[in-house]
Amino acid sequence: MDAEQFHEVLQLSGEHLALVGTAIGIGAAIAIPAAILLSRNASPRRLALGILNILQTIPSLALFGFLIPIPLIGGIGKRTAIVALVVYALLPLVRNTLAGILGVDPAVRESAVAMGMTNAQVLMQVELPLAAPMILAGLRIATVTSMGTAVIAAAIGGGGLGVLIFRGISFNDSGQILSGAIPAAVMALIADEVLGWIEKRFSRYR
Asked: Residue 3 CB: number of other CB atoms within 10 A?
């Protein structure tokens, strides 16, 4: 690999990380508040999880294609890719946040209320800290999955390491395919290890 190719790999790796980081950030901002609301309202919980499960089963390339003609969020480019990655990130984030909050011992919750805590204080000082390891596990799953799914973004002009992979497929060049696939796999492994370490730290804190 010459200097020019190395520079391209670095640039596309940065684009790949930006896609995943933006999607996970938006996904967490949507999923965690939604999961908190669902933990308080049992009736819409099954419907919401059912819809997210259905969205998760749509093949990634098909979802990218479905989103392209939609006004405002569709089109060719990074915006559509980020929307698709957010959709895939929602299920693990919502499901794990719900599991974490609902898994808090009712006796602990009742003790906090007996001490005079408001509902907001119980949520912020008791439930979310205790649910943090489960929330982080969902974040870990969503991030690692998105690292792989983001490769497809290149098919709709979203950039990232998929550019090298699709170019390598077009020219039957295994070197280009590997130069895109290996950094994507390495970043996924690093993200998994780092988030796993943070998750263990929170588990000890809990």
From this structure: 7
Nearest CA to 161 out of 149, 144, 170, 173 is that of: 149
Whole-angstrom distance, CA of residue 134 vs CA of residue 203: 9
Task: For residue 185, give the amino acid letter.
Answer: A
pLDDT band of 35, cuts 50, 70, 90: very high
| The pair of three-digit structure tokens given for residue 157, joined into one six-digit string | 């002009």
Q: Which of 53, 75, 59, 38 is nearest to 156 (CA)?
A: 75
Confidence of residue 86 (pLDDT cuts 50, 70, 90): very high
Rg (CA), the chain: 20
- Whether pLDDT at 1 is above 70: no
- What is d(CA 203, CA 32) in angstroms, rounded to the nearest whole number? 19
Angle between helices 3-40 and 174-205 (to 10 degrees): 40
With contact defined as beta carbons under 8 Å apart, do 60 and 149 qualify?
yes
pTM above 0.85, yes or no: yes
Record the tokens describing residue 138, joined without a space. 């969902």
Averaged confidence pLDDT in the chain: 91
Tokens representing residue 123 in the block:
């949520």
- Note whether 60 and 147 are within 8 A (CB): no
Give the residue among 159, 139, 163, 113 at the shortest CA–CA distance from 35.
Answer: 139
